[in-house]
## 1
Amino acid sequence: MQASSSHEPSHLKRTLGLPSVLLFGLAYMAPLIVYGTYGVLAKASDDTAALAYLLALVAIAFTALSYGKLARLFPVAGSAYTYTRKTFNAHLGFLIGWATLLDYFFLPMVIWLIGAAYLNAAFPHVPSWIWIVAFIVLTSGLNIVGIELAARFNIVLMIVQLAIVAMFVALCWHYASAAAAPGGIAMAEPFFKPHVPLGATMAGAAIAAYSYLGFDAVSTLTEETIDPKKNMPRAILLIALIGGAIFVIAAYTMQLAHPGVEFKDTDSAAFEVAKMIGGDIFVTVFLAGLILAQFASGISAQASVGRLLYAMGRDEILPKRIFGFIHPRFKTPAINIAIAGIVGLIALKLDVATSTSFINFGAFLAFTAVNLCVIRVYLSGDHGDRRIGVTGGLVFPLIGAVSDIWLLASLEKTALVLGAVWFVLGIVYLCWITRLFRQAPPEVAI
């Protein structure tokens, strides 16, 4: 049942340096996503979006430090699932993997939902459901046929996204300066609003964490990274910090240009702001860049889901006849890709706020587990070739775990209920495949 029984080589070629890993992580995070969820975040945080991003960054930064330590101790491809399995036991590892599956499984749905919201804002006479179905059909078809995006397209896409973010920030600043009162811009206003309770900002931070998803994805490249014990911890932390700086600056300047949370459509608020600060020309450039980023991201996310489900089917965690199926002509997990597309139709009944909160449930559980893994390693005394001090092995991961749990508790109630139901289903399924925990669950080799 385990992939370790294969006689094929189990190592990958190390060719990636620190810059390449950084580029991959930032491309996975997609900087333009800060504008895709801005309206929802501004409303949830009561117009403290910049502060919400900053608070989320604190939690993510401490968690990134924990990911870095574990990537050094376990220099193999994997993430929260692998670390929990190796540090605690196979059963807890399975449950964390099950929680992480929630992110992978529903992430394409959120991407398609955000893209449809902005296309609907640009073309209001076309119903949103048509855009959602179009996204699903196109990306599913491309993924089944086996279209691959070359690395150079990721580089071009990153340059385009960063250029649009830079233009958006500059135009917001120019607009805010021109509209400022004689006393000048209220520079501290986006961060300090005495009348806004901390609970509202934390609710926003719980949504803001969605933008950071993917900072840890580079841990899956550990076996392909040169000197991973040195470069991987640096890359994970730098990706979180660079991405966080982009998000905070973007949200800050947006609040300066458009204080308040009154938008025609909360789900596509940045479209309205883009038109306000740059006119029709800039809003066209912005919309094209955002849709391109969402489309490419949707292809990658759905492809990841298909291959993750295939890995679980191949290793007989899920029914092999269905999830382990490979299309005889296209050599892709066609059934799994189609399932991901069908699940995406749930977007027809959800909004951006609920869907992002839903997948953040799994992310926060995984982040908490990673921090607890570092504490477990520190207390065990088995620190590998470099001793972990009390600050890095206990204090920082404890702060990270508490922050992640706080963000988890700040999710909206619907997301908490749906997430809890998903986790309970995972426990029931684990009981079944392990004969009431008497056997170790099979290992997923991704």
Note: Residues 228 and 341 are 35 Å apart (CA to CA).
## 2
Amino acid sequence: MSMPINRRVFMILSVILVIGSLGALVLSSFTGALVYFHTPTEALAKQPELNGKKIRIGGMVQAGTLTREAGTLKIRFLVTDGKGQIPVRYEGIVPDLFREGQGVVVEGTWKNGQDFPADTILAKHSEDYVPVEMNEQGIAKSKESLLKSLK
């Protein structure tokens, strides 16, 4: 027996709607999981458009710049990508892996003309992390780090 045309159209449209909804759900979950950050050089170049926005800045904690205020949880340091550097201030408990010469992503609201006030500090887990701009081997080192993290 053959289905009436109206019922076939309804079934086809229902299947398309379900598949479309599932696709949109998957896409939106991936978009929310992406962690994009600006390098210090990018953030400084885009400073006017980033003013007042919540952003992430990623790079290395520059050696010799980490200072702690005695008796408090306040710290200051520079995040660098080898070309640009941004002074960061933070108050709170830092991750165990946070230290000078280590990869870091800081999150906060950018304010022109001031130190970057970080709300969150994320330390990079791999000891081999080096931003591509700071690495002579560039892509080869990035692939090597990626393979290590997959093991």
Note: The chain has a mean pLDDT of 80.
## 3
Amino acid sequence: MSSSLSVFLLDPAATRGLVGSGDEQLLEAIRSRFADDLASDDDYFRYEIEQGAPTAYEALRAVIHGGPFSGDEEHAFQYGYAYKRLCSLTGVPLDNDCFCPYRGDWLSVVDQGLEALRITAVSVASFDRANLPDSLPWMYTPGCGEWSPERIGQALEQFEATKAADQAPPLEPEVVEAIMQCLGWMRSAAARPGFGIIGFRS
């Protein structure tokens, strides 16, 4: 079974601030823009919805209003996908072909490559965790992680230090390609003060 990452360039603090904001105008903008996607998701998750999971729009409304949330952990995934939808509306999707799809422990393999270059401030495996805003229910899928502007700045400094020391170890070509894609994400964020990255594994 394969997984994939969706990665967005945005202001993480502002995006998290949308959760529980009660912004009806934003809610309706998303409902209008993503009407087909919402309907498609409802069709895909028809069985889960019949078992009590919220529809895509119901989940989105709960996220923007800070609840109420279903108490059933099996239904919490809908709130994660609703948060991902917020990120896709407010953020810029970044190239992810090195991570879409991927199998097995690929994220850890790329992290090992980053660590070999002495880049430890960020981790692609963090996108596999459940690092959602605190007010949202815990869920395994989708995974979510965040690279803050500060950590991105540190990671780029670490990379430059490794380059200056000319201590880059030999790495597999596909790992190098993935690392270069990560560095591209970070450079895009660094070019916009206050911007970071939020990624989702699904």
Note: The chain has a mean pLDDT of 95.
